[in-house]
Write a structure and sequence with these properties.
The chain is an alpha/beta fold. The protein contains 15 helices and 16 strands. The chain has a single domain (about 20-365), classed as Alkaline Phosphatase, subunit A, CATH 3.40.720.
Length: about 500
């Protein structure tokens, strides 16, 4: 593998060409629903074009389907159970990463590597001392086109320094009120879309017919679900236009040929059965990488990646990764915190690794397993879950299985859910019942290859007892590797 990587580097411009600019484009609650991912209805021409220019990964997963916790992993390369950001950073409760995480956090390490670091849109991590950027731009996170325009001064600046831009939208997150034109009792969320088919400045909104949307298998096929999916599609198309404008500005300012773009989402779509769960729809995310230096374009990769791999890879791009140790080449000093504060355990290596060596490959060896760690969404949503998944099986450990599964407030009131909840506990919800969605067993074990919608739990099947035991051992090993305190639960229960 090392020899292959050296060969790959030989195909790239000489070191004198300098470090590439890097744009990390992160959307809010977006599943891999796009034309390039096989959806024939949604219009995402700019994302589709980006995939043709680079590599589209089909097996990429968030480590947790919760906004703040997920973003902390994206920007640190460390699972949230280690970095301390278990849940949301909100005004009424405080979850934030430990001070010691500064040594491994991406923004300041990029600055140390010689980059101008810029952030625009949704940040949703804390503290600022850990996730510090040199420059914070203002923009409407519901209008990616306007956000792109706000970035123009970064591209215009005459500087020998490359830039690292963290571009994070609030689309397609729920919000903005209800669509009162819907004839049914339960009004669909607008997903940031303006009422009465109004348009954001610079945006040509794309509207969708609910009858024509594609309902994924984890959702019930109901009028409420279709209406919300149509609104979700519209929000995704608005993101796509912003991506297109961002690319135009890069080209206009002569930055396109030296800018790496990584496009992903913090986790899956904001529907019950996806966001805040560790089911496939919650963890699987879009992931497209365009590296202008690569000789191969239009690649599709089946490598299994996680968000923990992003920070070490970007540092690798910047020449700031110690590849042997999978740690920063020059870690920043560890912060001890204030009097009485817990600084956290000093990290020694990233939980993820750089995927830069496998960027030209379609099915590389050794990239066949991911893990996930979810504890909170909002404070009232305590429900720790741990996951180990490979290409054949997926094990979910519901640590708090004795209590009902808690809902995020925006998902509880979702028309998609309420319409089924009203029908009773035996109503269908994407191959499950309403009751089985809320009341979950201690272990869920799925043959993910044959049951992608996770509808048949094999944990109680004697025929799978032996293989289940092996996956439990693998989960324990991953918990030990990543410093998960919940590993002790195996010993006393």
């Amino acid at each position: 593998m090392r020899l292959f990587f050296l060969f790959f580097l030989a195909l790239l411009p000489a070191a004198g060409a300098g470090q590439p600019n890097v744009i990390l484009f992160v959307t809010d609650d977006q599943s891999p629903v796009a034309g390039c991912y096989g959806n024939s209805v949604i219009q995402t021409p700019h994302l589709d074009a980006l995939a043709k220019e680079g590599t589209m990964f089909t097996q990429v997963f968030a480590t947790t389907a919760s906004c703040s916790a997920s973003r902390s992993v994206i920007l640190s390369g460390l699972h949230n159970h280690f970095n301390g950001q278990y849940g949301h950073t909100h005004h009424f409760h405080k979850f934030e990463s430990f001070a010691a995480m500064k040594a491994f956090a991406l923004p300041q390490l990029m600055a140390q590597a010689g980059y101008r670091t810029v952030q625009i849109g949704k940040l949703h991590v804390a503290p600022e001392s850990v996730f510090h950027f040199d420059q914070y731009l203002k923009g409407n996170a519901r209008n990616a086109t306007q956000m792109a325009e706000a970035c123009q001064p970064v591209f215009e600046e005459k500087s020998d320094q490359p830039f690292f831009l963290y571009f994070a939208t609030s689309d397609p997150h729920r919000g903005g009120g209800k669509d009162k034109t819907f004839p049914g009792k339960h009004k669909p969320d607008r997903f940031g879309n303006l009422p009465d088919k109004k348009e954001y400045p610079g945006v040509k909104e794309v509207f969708y017919d609910p009858e024509k949307v594609i309902v994924p298998g984890f959702l019930p096929d109901t009028p409420e679900s279709r209406a919300e999916i149509a609104n979700y599609y519209q929000s995704c198309s608005r993101i796509d236009q912003g991506l297109g404008r961002l690319i135009e500005l890069l080209k206009e300012n002569g930055k396109w040929d030296n800018t790496v773009i990584i496009f992903t989402a913090d986790h899956g779509m904001a529907f019950p059965g996806a966001k805040t769960t560790v089911y496939e729809a919650g963890l699987r995310v879009p992931f497209i990488v365009r590296d202008p230096r690569a000789t191969k374009k239009g690649m599709t990769s089946e490598a299994m990646l996680s968000h923990a791999d992003i920070t070490p890879t970007i540092l690798d791009l910047a020449g700031a990764l110690n590849q042997k140790k999978t740690a920063p080449a020059k870690p920043l000093s560890f912060e001890k915190g204030g009097v009485g504060e817990n600084p956290g355990k000093a990290p020694r290596k990233y939980h993820g690794r750089s995927w830069l060596p496998i960027l030209p490959e379609t099915n590389p060896k050794g990239w066949d397993e991911i893990s996930a760690s979810h504890t909170f969404h909002e404070i009232q949503m305590y429900y720790p879950m741990r996951v180990i998944r490979d290409r054949k099986y997926k094990l979910i450990w519901n640590i708090a299985y004795r209590q009902p599964y808690p809902f995020a407030s925006d998902l509880w009131v979702a028309a998609t859910w309420q319409a089924q909840w009203e029908k009773g506990k035996d109503a269908d919800y994407g191959g499950r019942t309403v009751d089985s969605y809320i009341n979950r067993p201690q272990f869920e074990f799925f043959d993910i290859a044959s049951d992608p919608n996770e509808s048949r739990n094999l944990a109680g099947d004697p025929a799978h007892a032996e293989v289940l035991a092996k996956y439990k051992d693998r989960l324990k090993a991953e918990q030990k590797r990543t410093g998960d305190p919940w590993i002790m639960k195996w010993e006393y229960e």
